[in-house]
C-alpha cells in the first residue's frame, strides 16, 4: 500500500505518515521504482499499535522505544491497553450518567465523578505494565513512580 492508500483507510494525514517515517517510527517496507513509500500488512499492524498508544497520549519517542524493545510482547501490550481502555470507559460512563441525571432534573451535586481515582487507576495500570527500560527512564525523570502518577 502507498502512503495515500493508508491515509485514506486510516484517516491519518500523509504528512503524519511521512513524519513517522522521518523519525523511524513507521518505516516503509519498501519503495517503488518511482520512490513511493510502500507498506505491507505487518507495517499496518505496527501503525495500529501506534494508534492504540496515541489514545493514551504516549509520546512518539516512547512508542518508538517500546516497539523497538526486544522484549516487546504484542499480546501483553494489547492486554494492557485493553485494561486501560476499560478503565477509561468506566470513567466516561460515570460522567455520562452524571449528565443524564442532571438532564432528568436530578440536580444533586455529585462531584465524585471528577475525583482522581479513575485517573490514578489508569496510572497504576500503566506503571504495572511498562517495559523495564521505560519504567527506569520514568523513575529517572520523575524521581519515583509516585511522582510520575
Please outline what is shown here.
The chain is mainly alpha-helical and 149 residues long. It contains eight helices and two strands; from the N terminus they run H-H-E-E-H-H-H-H-H-H.
Descriptive overview:
The chain is an all-alpha fold and 149 residues long. The chain has 2 domains: 1-56, Orthogonal Bundle (Multidrug-efflux Transporter Regulator, Chain: A, Domain 2); 69-149. The protein is 65% helix and 3% strand. It has helices spanning 3-10, 14-22, 41-54, 60-68, 74-103, 117-128, 132-142, 145-148, and strands at 30-31, 37-38. Strand 1 (30-31) and strand 2 form a beta hairpin. Helix 5 runs antiparallel to helix 6. The longest helix is centred in the middle third of the chain and has 30 residues, at 74-103.
Amino acid at each position: 500500500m502507498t502512503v495515500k492508500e493508508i491515509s485514506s483507510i486510516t484517516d491519518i494525514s500523509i504528512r503524519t505518515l511521512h513524519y513517522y517515517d522521518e523519525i523511524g517510527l513507521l518505516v516503509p517496507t519498501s519503495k517503488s521504482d518511482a520512490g513511493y513509500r510502500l507498506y505491507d500488512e505487518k507495517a499496518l499492524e505496527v501503525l495500529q499499535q501506534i494508534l492504540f498508544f496515541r489514545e493514551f497520549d504516549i509520546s512518539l519517542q516512547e512508542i518508538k522505544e517500546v516497539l523497538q524493545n526486544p522484549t516487546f510482547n504484542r499480546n501483553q501490550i494489547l492486554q494492557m491497553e485493553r485494561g486501560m481502555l476499560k478503565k477509561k470507559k468506566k470513567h466516561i460512563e460515570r460522567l455520562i450518567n452524571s449528565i443524564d441525571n442532571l438532564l432528568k432534573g436530578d440536580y444533586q451535586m455529585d462531584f465524585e465523578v471528577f475525583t482522581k481515582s479513575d485517573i490514578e487507576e489508569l496510572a497504576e495500570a500503566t506503571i504495572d505494565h511498562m517495559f523495564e527500560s521505560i519504567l527506569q527512564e520514568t523513575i529517572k525523570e520523575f524521581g519515583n513512580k509516585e511522582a510520575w502518577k
